[in-house]
Write a structure and sequence with these properties.
By secondary structure, the chain is an alpha+beta fold. About 15% of the residues lie in helices and about 25% in strands.
Length: about 950
């Protein structure tokens, strides 16, 4: 994989920028583009019937080609070549009859019309025609065959630009010979479609044929290009294919690599022709595993063409992933189950996703085989691994296996206001015209367009870009579990944990009414690669109320889940999912619409469930930040902090049952958006929240003191201002801080931990980001007082060789240019060799550069991932043997690339005999030993009851120096 340490300016909109090359964004000649020349077999055998069809192979080709051209990506230019025929019916060579051109609407119509007029009239001079196609792509001189071109009037004319040409009028002027008129080209060269200055351009020849070569013996047509010798059509084709793929300098000057693809129509897969074509494919793609594409009819041929062009488009955009991008994972706290939300980037706005299940065994992630499923070199799934629900090896293939592979008959629910309705597929099929407008189509859209959208909704699995799987136990036994995960396809999926089958999906009404957009395979990116479709892009939190008579194993009294849309919108939904087979809508809050929520921005903040006193009653509530203001924050890389955001600079407390607003705050020092979750602390374990902690995009950290009397007199304090002047000081907190109880020198304190980073532009390198620990020394005192505000100058640089005192806290500056923290920190406890407790702070980081990156504007900047593990109290490396020297470096480079999720600490899983093993910490698919004797899980995302320490987001732990 090529990765590039370049930072584009002012064009991207979110953290998906790591999946694109710099050339996608700048204004230079380096533009992602593919030049594709189809070489079409026009031999007489193309007029024979296709296998098991009453249509000819030519007719099947014409149908397939029209389908492909209609759905062609915007960055692919297409041209056409064919075998010589007509008067030159002895079948020598071929020629280009439609130059590689941009496929605008006019060109699409022209090229389809030309192909629809093709006839099978020649022999099969594949090698000679292929060499002519190569000459065109390279800008070489045409051969005599191409100079003459077609002579019969109903054949398409050569339409390639050359430097000099004249038309033959000699004997052609006599009566009866006008039809034999042709252009004669002399001392000329093709006008090549390739641009040597565009480093991001790719070039391709797709050879489609239905039979072995005939009248194809002019081997010099190849050797005049490649040099050396060859004998036999296929041998010479392979020689030329290899030569074209390798882009060394040649006798006529610099050139660019050209890939050759082989497509066989109506050819047996075990035939000698298939074996010969495979040799050419291997040479033309530089891959010994390359295959011939086989098809027998139009649908199959269109599918093969589409797959090739998808690969071509991906190649031209340098848009790819390590095979699978693992965004989020979750586990069931007491089992060895692991659930991974995975996705793959795409060339359009709709990306593919899945949910896959693995197990943790002896500290390793394992699949069906029981062996380690992770590639030690990449940190991602092995290609031949198989997740637990899958019937075949699915490895790095997002679209294979998982919950997606278990989907059979989708039951799709949507809402009309707060009423959940089940979409009746039969009604859609019977009266599609009634559903056109409902799906976002024109009210007069043809029935087949409506049915196409409906059929795609039945199987759609969008990308869970930022959605972590949520696991809920439904009682009876520990295996009666459901998993909820939402995607940018606009759906929330309810998955049975046992077999991966989908119980139902829920799609909000605002997304159903744009279903045409969410199901389109060609809905484009913008010119600067911004996605145009987002859906339910956030994570969900659950309130599971235990059964009063059997709280341990009984069916829960109710299960409610709550979630937002992130970039998909400004709305929060509350769903009653107490039934495993159907959801109900409890309430929804819509920013700018629902009374009291005018400042609510994009709903990024994952709600936190807790309890507070409202009047004289304990009331379950949700606390969440005001969200994200895209207009204020999407394009501020390399700039100083602005004066404030127009929305999102608030926090809200709502009744978890009704969604009614209980309290909100904004204004004052709260000038910037609060996209992260809110951390809640219950200091006296009475089941009520005492403090709220949160960060904002202005580099500030706040504490809110909850009114314990049941009123609304909440006190808001700025705990820290950690932003600075200029672009380098424009620090941002996108995630919830971790809050930890510490007894230090006999004094009770809360340590507030946060990491800064520009989540919306991970490639930005202008900010000096850091990991911060701020001490709140007043929160735990008997006479609770406002905290003393601190700035960066008050904190100790923990990376210094001789750190000063850490009285007010410390910071650990990132060690790599552009490095930033883009996930919430984790704190766990371990012990040293003398059995003394050590509190370890772990945080993952992302850097836009890697040591093995190649500086190329065409390379995708996946960047590198790292894990910081330091002593919570001092910020220094962890010393396990008490010799005063850290036993492991504070920063560990991870094998995976891309933005890592937070570290999840967990037991090591089953040891194979039913017993637990030592705990590990997993960052996505990469697990590390934590030396974790006595460690506790600090962060909770799943709620069983509203009692004692269950009523806070972060469990209060006693930690001692």
């Amino acid at each position: 994989m090529l990765v590039c340490a370049l930072s584009p300016t002012g064009v991207y909109a979110d953290d998906t920028e790591i999946f694109f090359a710099k050339a996608n964004a700048d204004n230079s000649e380096n533009k992602p583009k593919a030049n594709v020349l189809f070489l079409i077999d026009t031999s007489g055998s193309m007029e024979r019937d296709a296998p098991n069809s009453n249509r000819t192979k030519m007719q099947e080709l014409q149908s397939a080609f029209s389908t492909v051209i209609d759905n062609l990506g915007s960055d692919i230019d297409v041209g056409l070549a064919k075998f010589n025929g007509g008067y030159d019916n002895s079948g020598y060579g071929g020629y280009v009859f439609y130059p590689v051109s941009e496929m605008n609407d006019t060109a699409r119509a022209e090229i389809k019309q030309i192909v629809n007029g093709l006839e099978g009239t020649s022999n099969t001079p594949t090698m000679e025609a292929y060499s002519e196609a190569a000459r065109y792509m390279l800008g070489y001189s045409p051969t005599d065959y191409a100079e003459r071109g077609e002579a019969v009037e109903n054949e398409p004319r050569r339409a390639v630009n050359v430097e000099r040409k004249r038309v033959c009028y000699q004997w052609c002027q006599y009566p009866g010979y006008e039809k034999y008129r042709w252009e004669y080209v002399y001392d000329s060269k093709y006008d090549s479609p390739t641009n040597l200055k565009n480093q991001c351009e790719s070039n391709h020849i797709i050879v489609m044929t239905d039979g072995d070569p005939t009248s194809d013996s002019d081997y010099s047509s190849v050797t005049k290009i490649t040099g050396g010798g060859c004998n036999g059509s296929y041998s010479c084709q392979a020689k030329l294919a290899k030569w074209l793929y390798n882009d060394d300098k040649d006798v006529e000057g610099s050139r660019k690599s050209v890939k050759t693809w082989q497509v066989a129509l109506g050819v047996g897969k075990n035939s000698s022709q298939a074996r010969n074509m495979k040799n050419v494919a291997e040479a033309g793609l530089g891959d010994p595993s390359a295959e011939v594409r086989f098809a027998d009819n139009a649908d199959e041929l269109a599918a093969e063409f589409k797959e090739i062009l998808d690969l071509v488009d991906k190649d031209s955009r340098t848009l790819s992933s390590p095979g699978v991008a693992v965004n989020q994972m979750n586990r069931f706290q007491y089992l060895d189950q692991l659930y991974y939300a995975v996705f793959t980037p795409n060339k359009n706005s709709n990306w593919e996703g899945n949910l896959k299940r693995y197990r943790l065994k002896n500290g390793e992630i394992v699949g069906v085989s029981g062996g380690n499923a992770i590639d030690p070199d990449t940190g991602y799934f092995k290609k031949d691994s198989r997740s637990l629900w899958s019937d075949e090896d699915d490895g790095v293939d997002v679209e294979k296996g998982g919950a997606r592979g278990e989907l059979v008959d989708r039951e799709l629910y949507y809402n009309a206001g707060t009423v959940a309705k089940k979409l009746d597929w039969q009604e859609v099929e019977d009266d599609p015209e009634d559903w056109a407008a409902f799906f976002g189509l024109d009210a007069n859209a043809p029935d087949d367009e409506v049915l196409d959208v409906a059929n795609k909704l039945k199987v759609q699995w969008g990308d869970p870009l930022h959605s972590a799987p949520l696991l809920i136990n439904y009682g009876g036994n520990e295996n009666n579990n459901m998993i909820f995960v939402s995607t940018n396809g606009g759906m929330l999926h309810a998955i049975n944990a046992d077999d991966g089958s989908e119980s139902y999906a829920f799609m909000p009404e605002e997304f159903v009414q744009q279903a045409e957009k969410y199901t389109s395979e060609t809905y484009p990116l913008t010119n600067d690669n911004r996605r145009q479709t987002y859906g339910l892009d956030g994570s969900w939190v659950a309130w599971r109320k235990p059964n009063a008579t059997d709280p341990v194993t009984g069916k829960p009294e109710h299960v409610y889940i709550y979630g937002g849309m992130r970039r998909g919108g400004r709305t929060y939904y509350a769903l009653d999912v107490s039934s495993k087979t159907s959801p109900k809508v409890k309430w929804k809050i819509e920013g700018g619409v629902t009374n009291g929520f005018s400042d609510l921005g994009q709903s990024w903040s994952i709600p936190t469930l807790t309890q507070i006193m409202v009047g004289d009653k304990k009331v379950p509530v949700l606390v969440f930040g005001g969200g994200y203001s895209a207009n204020d924050n999407d394009n501020r890389q390399g700039k100083a902090r602005n004066s404030g955001d127009s929305m999102g600079n608030a926090i809200y407390i709502v009744n978890a049952e009704t969604g009614k607003l209980i309290w909100s705050t904004s204004g004052g020092e709260m000038k910037w958006s609060v996209p992260g979750s809110i951390s809640v602390v219950d200091k006296n374990l009475d089941g009520l929240a005492d403090f709220l902690y949160f960060g904002d995009l202005g580099g500030q950290i706040f504490r809110v003191d909850i009114d314990q009397s049941g009123g609304k007199k909440m006190a808001v304090h700025r705990l820290a201002q950690l932003g600075g002047a200029g672009a380098s000081g424009n620090r941002r907190f996108y995630d919830a801080p971790a809050v930890v109880y510490v007894v230090e020198d006999g004094k009770k304190k809360l340590y507030v931990v946060a990491g800064s980073g520009y989540r919306s532009h991970p490639l930005d390198e202008s900010v000096d980001d850091a990991l911060f620990v701020v001490k709140d020394e007043t929160a735990m005192t008997t006479a609770q007082a406002a905290p003393t505000e601190v700035g960066l100058e008050d904190l100790t640089n923990a990376s210094a060789e001789t750190p000063a005192t850490t009285d007010k806290g410390w910071f650990y500056p990132m060690q790599v240019n552009g490095e930033k923290i883009l996930a919430s920190p984790t704190v766990y406890t371990t012990v040293d060799d003398d059995k003394n407790t050590i509190s370890v702070l772990a945080a993952t980081s992302y850097s836009p550069t890697r040591q093995d990156q190649q500086e190329s504007p065409c390379a995708v900047t996946y960047g590198s991932a790292a894990l910081y593990r330091v002593n919570l109290l001092t910020g220094s490396g962890v010393d396990y043997n008490n010799d005063g020297v850290a036993d492991e470096p504070p920063r560990t480079e991870l094998k995976q690339t891309g933005i890592p999720p937070a570290l999840t600490d967990m037991p090591g899983g089953s040891d194979g005999s039913g017993g637990p093993t030592e705990g590990v910490g997993c960052v996505g698919t990469e697990c590390l030993e934590l030396n974790d004797e006595g460690f506790d899980h600090l962060r909770k995302r799943r709620w069983y009851q509203m009692e004692k320490d269950e009523a806070n987001q972060f469990k209060v732990e006693a930690m001692h120096p």
